[in-house]
Amino acid sequence: MGRSRAFFAIICSVNRHAPQLLGYALAAYEKHSALVVGDRGISSQCGVQQGDPLGPLLFSLVMHDVVVPPNPGEQPPVPAAPASSQAPVESAPASLGQPEPLDAAGGRPTPPEPAQAPGSGDPAVPPPPPVGSPAAPRATDGALSQAGLDLLTFFLDDGAAGGELDTLGHWLQGFEDRAAAVGLSLNRGKCRLSVAPGATIPEALQGIETFPLDDIQHLGVPCGSPETMRAFVEEAAKSAERKMRMIASLPDAHVALTLLKFCAGFVSVVHLMRAVGAVFDFACIDQATQSCLATITGIETDASAWALASLPVRLGGLGLHSCADTAAIAHIAATFDGEACLPSLVTPYVLPHAMLLDEDDTFLASLEDPRLAPFESVLEKIQNVLQARDNYGGRGQKVWSATVHDERRKALLISMTEELGRSGRLQGSALALKQVQVRARIQSCSAQHASAWLYGNAEADPRLWLSPAELAVAIRLRLGLPIAPMPSICRLCGTGSADVDGVHARSCFSGGRRTRMHNALRDVIADFARRGLLAPAVERPVFSNTERKRPDISYVRDGTTVVLDVAVTFPLQPSNPQYAKRAAEKPGGAATAYATAVKEGKYRGIIDNEPNPREWLAVPLVVDTFGAWCPGALTELRQIARKSALREDRTASAACQDFFHQLSFQVAQGVARIVIASGGARPDEAVHPVAGG
After folding, report:
1. pTM, rounded to two decimals
2. At what angle do helices 652-678 and 631-648 cross, to 10 degrees?
3. Nearest by Cα to 15 from 28, 5, 25, 1
4. What DSSP letter does each residue of 100-148 carry, written as one string?
5. Is 556 helix (H, G, I), strand (E, B) or coil?
6. Is 437 exposed, middle or buried (0-12, 13-18, 19+ CB in 10 A)?
7. What CA–CA distances, in Å, run from 233 to 39, 143, 285?
8. Residue 392's pLDDT is what?
9. Which of 474, 547, 608, 660 could form a disulfide with 541 if both were Cys (CB 3.0 to 4.6 A apart)?
10. For the chain, which ranges sit under pLDDT 50?
11. Integer Cα distance of 484 and 537 in angstroms
């Protein structure tokens, strides 16, 4: 888009459709912006600017006037530029292109005046209708009837038009003329024309590659027959598998795991699942994801462990969602979401045929997918939507997926506890305790902020990423997998047995590594309190009646002296099964039990003997080895994060995210290093030794 035409096109389109943004558009595009590369400067003079948060909207406003043919007597979409700026513009590329032409005096053209109120002056530019009023057209309102098309839809510069070939050719000619008026050009080499066999292609559509009518594609998804859908998705699945193999080859295991979660697997094909549903078996993507996880961590997951890994992080899993289990739900939800848009996209003649869901083979295949059969509550909700045509305000996929995940977690807990009984390795009270411990582990991993370490933080210190060995141990402990092939003597205490589940290692107090983890947590909390100007004192005597008790951290907040005592507890310790029971009941149960039984009584008597006990507050900051905090700790830690946010000019949510990520990382790394040091997990070809320790 040439600078002169681009500027006038943007200003005019904003003036017509979103006049409240006119001042912003003038300020942003009336003058050139400078791009600096090293010691060189580049003047940015073309179209909407990269990085402009309203850039896509401004481009869409211009495209609206290009896509929608003008009504008879309606003014052109772009007002005539001043005579001094009528310089020829070369053919522009598909999006942005030529620099600004200068006028005779060497200056930039003068921008047009904003449209005036009716009857107040210049009739060249009609006044803009109120935004949201019936007179303010949507993307394609009126375009279908004016152009004689059956389908017309655009997303930014990617569009689709459908109808009789002659009508389609006539519309395309007008579209290219209107595009040229604002400095845009159509790249026919990137266009596809789907036609019936034996159709005669009119001259206006010559030069566009043709495809069979059942091989329609739009916005990167297939929209044709089930056969062409399968062929398309097979190629996309192969591409997704290649991407995962490349990710698995990265040397940094923790970074690779994060990329697997956010850039590959489920997220890379979710748009295809919404398009084709159960027509294609997406189990191959799940298998590739499982294989990628094994390569990254050196962990071969069994059926139960993989079922847990595919659950959301909030339910104790790894968030590597199953494509096969989600495809049908995604397509059903997308079908309902798209129903509301159909009247704006197709003609009244086509509309009744487009809304016949009982004749849509793809929709029926998803509705009858056997993977949905076990989830009766989800099927009931889908039937309710079919009758009421109300898809939870467009949140159907999220609502149904959450229900499926919750029910799968319940079924998984039952199957895991039953499998322990069928194995015959445990009997009586030992079996009952182990079943409670399984529930306690998953509940603790589900606690708020317990999993903040799992996928890192791109803005955090580079040191807050686990080494390959630490990551492998942390993932094994989270999924309940053995950390070693056989027991060995604990290298920390020299007497205990380092069992394959890491129970002894996490209960052993020898070697000083638990103290290091405690001190690391204390220092992170003190640092954030210092950044919040709370002036924390670390392990100093603060009580007037004794110097023997030195809290980990103390500070004065709003006239109250707050003393913090940091502690880490292991919820599965055999010596105190009550903690496992409490942890199995609710997330953070073990940390709450330890805080109540041990820490609260530690300072109660001392504070009661102070001259003004009401001016003191003792807060136990107890976290279990899976990362679950007691409720009182969460409240106080959020207070500290908010204080730091006020002083650092960032949001409280950003400060909390950063704070709990650092705390969660210290717990995960500390526990992993304890297990490795105890000899429970021995480095081999899959688990590399920890650098420096």
Report:
1. 0.79
2. 130
3. 25
4. PPP-TTSSPPPPPPPPPPTTSS--SSPPPPPTTSTTS--SSTTHHHHHT
5. strand
6. buried
7. 47, 32, 11
8. 64
9. 547
10. 1-3, 75-141, 683-693
11. 42
